[in-house]
Structure formats: structure tokens, C-alpha cells
Amino acid sequence: MDFAVIAVLKRRIVAGETFDVVIPSPELIDELVGQGKVAADTRAPFGKAGVGLGVRKGAPRPDISTPENLKRALLAAKAVGHSREGQSGVAFVEALKRLGIEEEMRPRIRTYELQDQAIALQNGEIDIAASGMGPMMEMPGAELLGGLPPELQNYVKFSIGVSSASKTPGAARALQKFLISPAVLPVFKAKGLERD
Q1: CB of 157 within 8 A of CB of 26?
Q2: Which secondary-structure segment (H or E) carries 8?
Q3: In which domain, by residue range, is 105 found?
């Protein structure tokens, strides 16, 4: 298994990297089906993830439960990080716009690859990290504050598909079928994913 943001997945697949099952955005699945790289009958909704915010373990935990509290917490931070290419970074910047603080925050925003964001949080380069809920929950050295307030939350949606060139299509299709079954819902919830 390998994990990457959707933009990176797209570059790798376009460059010819092979795969058996892929879980990108619905738009990329549609593109891959159109290019004949994903079997059309395997395209299915997978789930969605909101933007989560976290702080370094042991650091003060600001209240982010309402837009006003979130605004206060962000403006009090010396620096805030988000993913460089991931859709969660785009969603986080959109939340800053909706809060009316995008320009004010611009000098304090840092963009990272996921592993670099975790290091920056641990080293105190940033006070708050924003990422997809699942990656934020798993970020080494971080404590999850929670998701963006409901009024600001924006979900990254995922679809799943099987490569039309898979060398093990039976196993790939069985995995895809299992991953969209009700049996996985408790794990989804524990890892910050929701079903549409």
C-alpha cells in the first residue's frame, strides 16, 4: 500500500505507474475511467474526510468549536501549517477566506508535505496543523483538536476503482468490494472517514 495526496497520485498514474486499486477524488476516477485506466464497472463512492486541526502533544488546546473561537485561535498562533498539494489545504484556505482572515494569516501560513508538517509541529515551527481528518489523527507527535466547525467544514470526497490492467483483477475486485461494504464502517469512523 502507498498513500499520497490526490495530485501526486494523478502525476504518478499519468507517468505510467501501475496499481491494482486506487482511491482518489471522484473527478480523477472519472478521468481514469475515460482513459481506460480504471474499469468503469468498479467505480464507486468510497467516503469523505473533513479538515482536522491539531497541536503538538502537550501544547495548550485552543477551543475551535465555533467560527469565532477558531478565528481567535488561528490569529493567536505564530504559524499554522497545511498540506502543500492536498485538497484539505485548499479547504483550509477556503475556511480562512470565509472567516475573513486570509490576508491577515498569509504571513503565518506554512505549507508542507505531510511528514514535514508533523516535524514542523513537533519542533514548534507551527502551533497548529491542518490536514485531512485521518492524517491529522495519525500525525506523529500531534493531538487532534477536532474538525473545522460545521459552518466551515469542507469535505474531501474519495472514490475507489480497480485498474483495468491489474495483474490480479479478482483479488483487486474483492478488495474493492470489501472496502465499500458496511463491515468497514467502524474502522472508517475510527480513522476520520465518513460515508457519503
Answers
A1: yes
A2: helix 6-14
A3: 51-147
